[in-house]
Structures
1.
Amino acid sequence: MTPGTRVVVVGDVITDVVAVLTAPLAAGTDTAAEISLGGGGQAANTAAWVAAQGFAVTLVGAVGDDDAGRDRAAELARAGVDCVLDRVSGVPTGTVVVLTADGERTMVTSRGANLRLTAEHVGKALAAAPDAGHLHLSAYTLLDAASRAAGLRALAAARERGLTTSVDAASAGPLRRVGARAFLGWVRDVDLLLVNADEATVLAGGLDPAAQGRALSATARRVVVKRGAAGAVWVEGRTTAVSVAAARRVAVVDVTGAGDAFAAGLLTAWLGGASASAALDRATELGALAVSSVGARPPA
């Protein structure tokens, strides 16, 4: 696939309120922080990073019919993302408060209009993208019952059209709540499944990363286990060689969106014909770039 072939990304559009704490959070009193407001959401972030790599990309999602929704759509358009967003009246655009310190983050989430994403909207959006070659799904869409039908429709429509597919497992907590068996059933036969270390443990147990990847290869054709500072592992099938990439050593400012940048680097390299090793290298490069600045989107 070349940069002229469209990637369709389905999932969350969020306003991020990021607080980079200067000290551990002090309960019941003040904690000083640098606070910024901007675009977020796993799918929206990934789409912005994909666009920054020169690929045509369409984001399919839902926002409120409010100033925040209009702001999120406008900034994504400026980043080169074609947005097909359902504007939902009476429901606010999703918001996440991100508390980050010492390379870790805690998120307080209101998913808002993201919960109103429908299978009908997704189906129409995909039908309107005849040049699409790949579908990438944020699993947050699957992990909430209210939007699950939209995520399942996205994967089904992609298969019907012969698109390649990828899913980012999103978050360990919601995965635990829905259960590994259900989730793996929803994403069965995707071309690429991305999981971080915690998500891999939820889905495959406490194995080493290569063994986790091989266990998950019963569901996905390729599995990438993201391990933060320990790098990443690519497993393709149960018996093929494992590719490993070391993490880039950079000063960590804010980890918000790092996994989304990683996903975009991985996808665009792989879709462009890169080997597993080269795709991992590109993914870790963009992940390092993401953690080097505040916010979830590509630096201006």
Note: The CA atoms of residues 60 and 84 lie 5 Å apart.
2.
Amino acid sequence: MKLYEKTLSEKEMFRGRIIRVHVDDVELENGQPALREVVDHPGGVSVCILTEQNEVIFVRQFRYPYKQVLLELPAGKLEPGEDPFEAVKREQREETGTASKNYISLGQVYPTPGYCGEIIRLWACRTQGDAEELSLDEDEFLCTERVPLEKAVEMVCRNEIPDAKTQIGILKTARLVEQGLL
């Protein structure tokens, strides 16, 4: 098996500020035609920030698609041409008022591979010094919250944190702490 689909044509259906949607005609590996609906997204970054007391710094914000407030790790989308590592430091500073010197890459996540090409790059770090004032985007409203890492892991396991990037970031960070690497 080749496990490959050949793109025959692409038709743009929508282009917005953040996403682009297109419908592609493809040929399956058995030669049969099929349609694929695809969302193009510039990608994002997220960071699990630990304090010296092993507290995770979260943000709480309203997420319109779900019509609810979610507890999440600080995160943001990449700007065109932006380096992901510089973006994660920017998001950390803007959303939590903190900075770090040493970061550990937690890899990348494909949050919805069935229809969206978004890739989220994850990091973990420890804060340095006191938090400064937040520097949020004009349309961004959130508040920060600190939760002990052990409790955050329990919250993930009890399904109290539904956000995928946050679950992955917390569990990978906890493993690094257990191994003495962070």
Note: The chain has two domains: 6-40, 44-178.
3.
Amino acid sequence: MTSLFDLSGRTALITGSARGIGFALAEGLALAGARVILNGTRDDTVAAAARRLADQGLDARGRAFDVTDEQAVAAAFAQWDHDGVQIDIVINNAGIQFRKPLVELQLSDWQRVIDTNLTSAFIVAREAARRMIARGTGGKIINIGSLTSEAARATVGPYTAAKGGIKMLTRAMSAEWAASNIQANAIGPGYILTDMNQPLVDNLTFDAWVRSSNPSQRWGKPEELVGTAVYLASAASSYVNGQIIYVDGGWLAVL
């Protein structure tokens, strides 16, 4: 059975992976045998994250570029082409949050969240899929959604719209790329203990709501997403396509 989940010989690009969920996913795929490419916008933080994995004896390297910049993404893939690096697995994890009521929201803030959380997934996956299709060897696209791919919450309108879009973008990818042996799926994390969510953890009222509204009565940990990511990146999910798997402790299962 272990061969079903073995990622040896595969190369995975994980966007937004210098810390938090992205780093945990990169580490998990590397432990499963993949060579991983970490990404972020700053050279120093990406390099430091890659060193943390390399120090564990894992095959990791970093490349900093802005995933919302179409030219920067194209340049990164062109460089990998030149270097003979074939991306077999993409995890579109890069994302930001911006909390403000919709009636107070500036268009520029709306656009920034949509570009980072949704449009970047299209740009990166498109570049990867073009090459996967040309090689004829298939591949794996894993998009990171959210509970807000399914349910809304006040003050996070653009994030909700973007993550809802991730669910449907994943299905669109599946509809177009499944015949090329590309499986496109998504993971919908629940409330996870990350740097981005730390202000919510520190808010006693919100923290109490998370714990009371979840059957598991706790926040999730980034490493609890790794098993699902390895499954979706591996041969074990070769006939799973266009799905979003919620890793939320049961939050969406209850009223």
Note: The first strand starts at residue 11 and ends at 14.
4.
Amino acid sequence: MKAILFICHGNICRSPMAEFIMKALVRRAGAEADFSIASAATSAEELGNPIYPPARRKLAEHGIEYGGKTARQLRREDYAAWDLLIGMDRANLQGMRRICGGDPQGKLSLLLDWTEQPRDVADPWYSGDFETAFQDISRGCRSLLAALARSQSQEARLIPSGVPPFKQNIER
């Protein structure tokens, strides 16, 4: 089983979007039993709060279920519990390293580092552009899933790298 924890600043926009997009991709690939997926925050600002309404609306618009999520903070022990800890931007990555006490096993990365266009996922809390965030996060999750499929042994069930997009075309 591959355990993936997505992280952003408050755990109410980008990281829960990544959590539920990745869960949807894994479900569509028939590989739910092969993954544990969740999300967390580097800050304590939004602890216990639900997903931000515009992020919920964007997920719903694309047919992605998101129920029951409330913000939680990344903890030092999460480093041992998760195989991959994936941040949305460089500030998140810095906070992740601080909270986890470094990255001795190379588990920390940025989501879009898994794509051909590595960069930060812009924070829609500030930009208001939840569609671009959705597109970037979807692209990163599909690339991550494809990379994990390529790294599996020949005996394991492979997830096709061409996992189709959601209701709307998410390739730009």
Note: The helical segments are 14-28, 53-61, 78-81, 90-100, 124-127, 130-151.
